[in-house]
Design brief:
mainly alpha; about 0% strand
Length: about 80
């Protein structure tokens, strides 16, 4: 079963192109995140996907800032 964290860790260990299955999964996950009603709901989705920490993935500054904002909003 695919999870966001599994894909991220796999790509970090060995950069490669996404498989068709991974690409479809990430498209569906993106749709689910866009449909979420608020940042708290988005963070719960990311936690379900195993993304409980933000460190260690070399996210770009803008992605890291957005994920941090979503996490903070979910904690309030």
């Amino acid at each position: 079963m695919l999870k966001l964290i599994t894909i991220l860790e796999s790509l970090k260990a060995e950069p490669r192109r996404l498989t068709d299955e991974e690409n479809l999964y990430l498209d569906q996950l993106g749709d689910e995140l866009r449909r979420a009603e608020n940042d708290a709901a988005r963070w719960r989705i990311l936690e379900r996907e195993g993304l409980c920490r933000l460190e260690g993935f070399d996210f770009s500054e803008d992605v890291l800032a957005r994920l941090t904002a979503v996490r903070r909003a979910a904690m309030n």
